[in-house]
Amino acid sequence: MVKSFGVIGTSAVLLLLGWTVSAASGQEQDKPKNQDKQQQQGKPPRQDQPQGNRQQGQQQQRQPQANRQQGQQRQQQDQQRQQQDNSAKHQQQANRQQGQQRQQQDQRRQQQDNTAKQQQQSNGHQDQQRQQQQANRQQDPQRQQRQQQDRSAQRNPAQVRQQQVAWQGDRAHSWQSEHRTWEQRGGYNGYRIPDDRFRGYYGQDHGFRIYSLPVMYVGGHRRFQYGGYWFALVDPWPEYWSNDWYDSDDVYVDYYGDGYYLYNRRYPGDRIAISFYVN
């Protein structure tokens, strides 16, 4: 009986030990499963990992593009700065040119002002000269008339004969072939009388006779003083004029086409070339 209880107790003990080992083994088997589940729950899903890699790849792909855009922007900024520098240089050049133009304009205005002042002074001087000449014109005809009368009264037959001899040396043998116009002589190059002076003493309305005037013989040509100037006969006088034409004929000085000429009222078709001298 006791032996039976011992066997039964031994069996019970063995069963209890087997159950305990099985329970422990089951716990150990369940523990990795639970740990795996916990690890799986703590880790991100496997399918998320490839998506992160793709985002990094896209970012890496966008990075060179961003670098290129930044390079283009820097290049555009450099070009803009270069254009601004060029514009500034052009503006400086334009400003210098404008300054030079203004300076030149100021100089021209100054010159014009100086010219205007000189012109005013010259006009004032010319007005004074015209007034003086007008006064002289009013006095000269009377004075010349008196001088002519005085010389006529003082002449004696010997002086008249001497003048006739001297004048014969200037007489032409064939005036048509011997005389030349100023155009044929190459143009008039002597002294030119101012217009207002010319109108006051010369022309058809101002006749005179040579015998009453101061006369001298210079360089092969006879010179006479009239109206404040000396003039010389460049041509010989025509052979068909009277022997004392310088004493009896009224003559006048006029300008015709290309120079000055002496006219004889008795022979209006003839022109003797003359040249004017100040002294």
Describe this structure in a few short sentences.
This protein is α+β, with helices and mostly antiparallel strands and 279 residues long.
Verbal overview:
It is a single chain. The longest helix is centred in the middle third of the chain and has 107 residues, at 48-154. It is rod-shaped, with a radius of gyration of 67 Å. The chain is built from 6 helices and 6 strands. It folds into 3 domains: 1-30; 99-154; 157-277, no CATH class. β4 and β5 (259-264) form a beta hairpin. It has a 6-stranded antiparallel β-sheet with strand order 1-2-3-6-5-4, with no helix packed on it. α2 (48-154) packs parallel to α5 (195-201). The chain has 279 residues and is α+β, with helices and mostly antiparallel strands. The mean pLDDT is 75.
Write the layout of secondary structure elements.
Elements lengths: L1 H41 L5 H107 L2 H12 L6 H4 L16 H7 L13 E4 L2 E6 L2 E5 L11 H4 L2 E6 L2 E6 L2 E11 L2
Antiparallel strand pairs: 1-2, 2-3, 3-6, 4-5, 5-6
For this entry, what is the oligomeric state of its chains?
Answer: single chain
Which range does the strand content fall in?
5-15%
Numbering strands along the chain, what is their spatial order in the largest sheet? Answer: 1-2-3-6-5-4
Mean pLDDT: 75
Number of domains: 3
Over the alpha carbons, how many angstroms does the gyration radius reach?
Answer: 67 Å
What level of helicity do the residues show? Answer: 55-70%
Number of helices: 6
* Topology pattern, helix = H, strand = E: HHHHHEEEHEEE
Distance between the termini: 195 Å
Shape: rod-shaped
Low-confidence stretches: none
| Secondary structure: number of strands | 6
Largest sheet: 6 strands, antiparallel
